[in-house]
Structure formats: C-alpha cells, structure tokens
Amino acid sequence: QGRVPCRAPSAPWCARQRGAMSSEAASSSSSSSPAPAPRKSAVLPGMIAGLMETLAVQPLDMVKTRFQIREGANPSLLRGLLEVYREGGVFRFYRGMLPEMVSTAPARTAMYSGYTWTAHAVQGKLASPQLETFVAGLASGVPESVIVTPLQLVKVRLQAKEHLGRYKNAFHCLRTIIFEEGPRALFTGFSATVCRNCAWNSVYFVTQGELKRLLGEPKAETGGWGAHAFNLVRTSGCAFLAGAFATCFNAPFDVAKSRIQQQVSSQDALGGVGSAEPKYTGTLQALQLIWREEGLRGMYKGFVPKFWRMGLGGAVGMLAFETAAEVLLSSTTGHWHSVLAQILHAQIV
C-alpha cells in the first residue's frame, strides 16, 4: 500500500481531493498525515500491475469464457484447463490476451475519471460514505465500458472454440469484424458490459473498504517491515475476498455479454458462421432466454473459474500495484491510499 509506517489513518481521501470519495471514509482521521501522491504518478504502477494481473489469471479467463458460451454441461475447472492445454499447449491459454493488455491503461483512466467525478458530485448528499462509494463505483463502470467493449469483443471471439479457424490473431479479428459486420459491431454487447462492470465496481469498492476498515491499521509499535508486511497481506486478502464476493453479483451479466459477443452478427460473403437473426439480441432478452432454457445454473455458467479469476486477479493486481508504487515512487511525498489502488485495479471483468 506504500503508506508511511506507524502513522495513524489519514483523513478521508475524498476530503483532500475535493470529492474523490474513499471507501475508507469511515476510518479515523489525522490532519498531520502527508498529502497523497499525485494522480499521474499512479499510471506506471497501474500499467505494471495490470500486466502482472493479466499474465497470472489469463488461463482462468480463457476457461471462464469457454464455459459461459458452451452448450450443455461444463466439466470441472481442472478438466477445462486440461482441455485447453491439449488443444494448443500453454500458448492456447493466452489466446486473446493482447486486447486485455491493451485496454488496461485507458480503461483504468476512464474508470478513475468517472469515479472521481461522481464522488465529487455526490459527496455529502447521500445517507452514508458507503452509499457514496457505491454510487461512484456504479457510475465508474460506464466510461470503463466504452473503452473495453470493442476489445472484449475481440477477446471473446478469439477465445471461443467455434471461431478458432476464423481469426488468425487480434488484429485480423478486429479487421474482420469491421469489414464483415461493420464498425457498429465493435460495440456488440455494450449494455451487458455496462451492467457487468457497474455491478462489479460498486460492490467491490464498498466491500474492499469495509474489510480493510474492520481489519484496522498496523499497531503503532509495529514499524518498518512489520507494518509493510501487514499492509500487503491486508490489501491482497481484502482484494481477493472483495473481488470474489462482487463476482456473485455480476456473473449473469458476464454470461449474457459472452453469449452476445460470440455471435457473428451477419453472414459474410465467404459463407461464415453468422446469422441474420442472432439468438441473443440484447441484455434483458439474453438473460430471460438463458433463464428459461437453462435456469439458474445457466445464469452462473463459468462461475467457478470466474470466481477464482476475479479473486486472484484482484489480489495479484492490488499487491503488484502497491509494491510497484512503493518501489518506483518511494522518493515522492505522500503515501498511497487504498482507494487509489481500488480505482486503478478493479478488474475489467
């Protein structure tokens, strides 16, 4: 987390940043605490953490997408991993990773901007700091979705087993979608992506802040590496639990998004797999159809790999962010607040 050791909890981040609401606003304050590091200094640690996070959880993301769009019952997580490995070795797990990596920096920036703007707008106007954090997290999913939807579309198409022979790589997939389906097709599944991201961000921010508040800060007598180790374990553990918990709320929207995006919207001249009348035409229609045909189990298809993907991703991303921030920016004044890490490293589910 990069906080100065042995300091009391600082004043709420939103109060010093003119409205950027911290999910730890309920914590006690200290007017002598140094100001937080400049926002721009979070960009490089954010990119490093995003890269580490993507590398760590991409195999789980591949299996999650395959499970979500598969017709019929899914195998166990282990059998799903083995199935992908037998299909193309280790490198098959990382098919579709490039769009995920490319979207990291702009998506975090868009989410951060949406969060801080909304937090400023609602500060002091709602019933509690937790509700303000929830609303800011909810709003942050909209600008984030604008950035990630085209890249998520490319990722899903590359990961779908049905399209293995159709797209050579990410660039070929992007070009094919534009020329065969039109530029508007890049935003296929946008509404489902918005619902997915808004649901996850809002629950994640509040849960992460409350868990850290309940665990408290390092004891005053714990200094140096003791406080540092406590903060790392506290941060990564809370991020894992918050990420896993938030997944329970956005999983149906993620299933709908994957189902919608894996469809080719129109039949191309070469006789592709597209259809003029896709099965899934919108978020609500997709959710209703999945519920009617597959029940609750269908709404949560791929939940196990998604649960571990989001939980581990949140822990790895948060841990990498705070470690990189401390190593790269140890000479800067101020310290890193958990809300900054939360905003920049909430997953692009």
- What value does the average pLDDT take? 78
Count of DSSP-assigned helices: 12
Low-confidence stretches: 1-40, 267-274, 331-349
Tell me the span between the first and last alpha carbons. Answer: 23 Å
Strand-helix topology:
Layout (H helix, E strand, L loop, with lengths): L12 H4 L26 H27 L7 H12 L1 H4 L3 H26 L6 H31 L10 H12 L8 H26 L9 H37 L21 H17 L3 H26 L9 H8 L4
Helix pairs in contact: 2-3, 2-5, 2-11, 5-6, 5-12, 6-7, 6-8, 8-9, 8-12, 9-10, 9-11
In words, what does this structure look like?
- Helix content is 66%, strand content 0%.
- The chain has helices at residues 13-16, 43-69, 77-88, 90-93, 97-122, 129-159, 170-181, 190-215, 225-261, 283-299, 303-328, 338-345.
- The chain is globular.
- The protein has 349 residues and is an all-alpha fold.
Question: What are the key terms here?
Answer:
mainly alpha, 349 residues
In short:
The protein is mainly α. It has 12 helices and no strands. The N terminus and C terminus are likely disordered.
